[in-house]
Write a sequence for this structure.
């Protein structure tokens, strides 16, 4: 393998028993569990029945077969839900580290935010996190970089969970790019300070995947779905600019945030616009001296799957602020051709730059040293 | 002057008598007119009273004084509302052509869409267009490139108005970047075909200014106003991607669209993402063979005020698809320093490229030849 790759954005398809194996039996009817009905498999929770969605698990299937129809576990390649098979799939592609987002709990675990029974929701969050460490990551501890979810309805509980899981080896959390559309207080309030405080204290990073807030951009109600996907990077831009101008990074200057699946190429133009508007509006708006582009380079990361414009503009972004993502097993993934894609994308980069964007930036961000470095430090 | 500049995006502050001078006297109480009250000036129409807004007319005032408080006509520099003074201001900055958007009627004339009395609304649209030709443009016919508004509530009336005004010298219209948020049928329907048909037939261009639809992006209800301004280019991206995937450019392949005040630097990344998603989703979504980036280069233009990233990426956009804008007299304008800004921005461009982005692309798009070319042709 020519490139040692760390992917900061992959996706777990949770196996059926994550919650029923961990919650007391009185919750088994209400906590997430899989039921076979009408010859198909459904997730059930709190009386809701949901389909699995086909586009979430296309890796290894021919493009002609991709669609939004539900698929069975047996229709997916095993690496979607089995961490041992996944580890094989990753190694095949040259991936030596991977940060995985939840699927049934949704990014940041927003599913549990909607639960009526908040006691059960709390147990579900903890069960996912414990399962992640004890079963998913344990299957290949050098490969899986643990990312946890938190109790979004209670920042103090979320902070406690961050501390509990940091002690268990967690390296980062998944969190909404903006909480406002979820009906939660915005990042322009101090509501989330316990979470930011816990992240700073533990050194965990914060991954803000596009679409976590549940909002997507579209020109019209009758626009086809693929238009929304083409516009998905706007979700990262809205989260990023909001965070640049919110009090959060002023109060917690060591936080590190990743805009997962947001792409890179738009970031220089967005920062140039932010700086220009900061310059033109700062007097009447009473803005402080923190220039948006400088704040980005201190506290934020962008990420790419296949983004030649972004890598061309790496000096505008900061080559130490760029991460790679595989997006396995979703539609965007280049798996199992990531080595070829990386070769095409990095033809103009120096060896040092290639090292940074393929793995060294991720190792630093997630405190995930190489095996020999770990051994050396011990 | 080193650069001959054509600005495709400036703003008229309409003088008080545009409508009362043109509508029958029975409408004078209800059509837009200015009233002096409480020592201030207000626009009145259909029983509504509205403030003028200060940030719309900051040119020539020191930045320390900019704010959103209402200003009187006498507080603005005369070039805001007087076409003779404006022409002097433009020449001072090296501007030889300017496309001006309406203010009180709002971009695309969406104000009149909301009028109860649609007979009066129709007269108001026509009055603005006639005033534009007879008074605004007539004050400097070589400078002002006429842009008209249409009857948005009736595409056939809009088409008729396009034909009427094309015969009077109009070169383009202002139109919503997406009509859906205005409560109108989207561009994914055939509702607007009469307008597109009239534009193709007359050769008029279509200018889609950010924010025309009335929607702006924001991470939260309590985010400060300047965050919305920093995110304004998302409005252009939503309009552009929607139009790339709508049936419009397939049925009317000669249309030319400008995304006014949208900026340039984000376009290459957006097109790269569109092409990639087109490639990944085209099978299950049943998309045709028109690659988004190729459609952009056939039918669309981007525009810049001060955008070094965009000009660096000019080969990705197409150097023949780039236009300049002054945004006079709004906050973004570099007036009266446009020559200096252009020098800084175009340091790496060839003379031919500079000619294209400063004026030649605009001359071609708006059918606006140089004086000597016009004389030669006559």
């Amino acid at each position: 393998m020519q490139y040692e790759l760390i992917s900061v954005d992959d996706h777990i398809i949770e196996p059926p028993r994550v919650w029923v194996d961990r919650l007391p039996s009185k919750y088994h009817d209400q906590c997430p569990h899989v039921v076979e009905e009408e010859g198909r498999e459904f997730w059930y929770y709190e009386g809701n029945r949901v389909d699995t969605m086909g586009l979430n698990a296309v890796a290894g299937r021919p493009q002609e077969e991709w669609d939004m129809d539900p698929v069975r576990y047996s229709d997916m390649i095993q690496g979607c839900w089995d961490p041992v098979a996944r580890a094989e799939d990753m190694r095949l592609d040259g991936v030596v580290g991977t940060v995985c987002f939840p699927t049934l709990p949704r990014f940041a675990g927003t599913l549990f935010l909607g639960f009526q029974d908040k006691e059960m929701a709390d147990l579900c969050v903890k069960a996912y996190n414990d399962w992640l460490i004890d079963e998913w990551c344990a299957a290949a501890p050098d490969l899986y970089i643990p990312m946890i979810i938190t109790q979004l309805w209670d920042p103090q509980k979320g902070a406690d969970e961050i501390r509990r899981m940091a002690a268990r080896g967690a390296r980062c959390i998944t969190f909404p790019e903006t909480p406002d559309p979820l009906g939660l207080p915005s990042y322009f309030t101090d509501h989330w300070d316990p979470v930011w405080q816990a992240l700073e204290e533990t050194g965990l990073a914060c991954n803000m995947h596009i679409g976590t807030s549940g909002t997507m951009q579209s020109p019209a109600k009758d626009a086809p779905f693929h238009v929304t996907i083409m516009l998905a990077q706007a979700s990262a831009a809205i989260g990023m600019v909001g965070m640049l101008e919110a009090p959060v990074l002023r109060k917690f200057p060591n936080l590190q945030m990743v805009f997962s699946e947001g792409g890179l190429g738009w970031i220089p133009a967005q920062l140039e616009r932010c700086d220009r508007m900061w310059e033109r509006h700062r007097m009447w708006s009473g803005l402080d001296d923190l220039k948006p582009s400088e704040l980005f380079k201190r506290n934020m990361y962008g990420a790419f799957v296949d983004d030649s414009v972004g890598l061309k503009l790496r000096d505008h972004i900061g080559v130490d602020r760029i991460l790679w993502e595989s997006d396995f097993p979703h539609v965007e993934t280049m798996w199992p051709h990531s080595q070829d894609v990386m070769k095409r994308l990095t033809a103009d980069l120096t060896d040092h730059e290639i090292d940074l964007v393929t793995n060294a930036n991720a190792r630093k961000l997630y405190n995930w040293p190489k095996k020999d470095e770990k051994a050396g430090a011990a």
User: Anything to note?
Assistant: The first strand of chain A starts at residue 5 and ends at 11. Residues 118-136 of chain A form the longest helix (19 residues). Chain A has a mean pLDDT of 94.
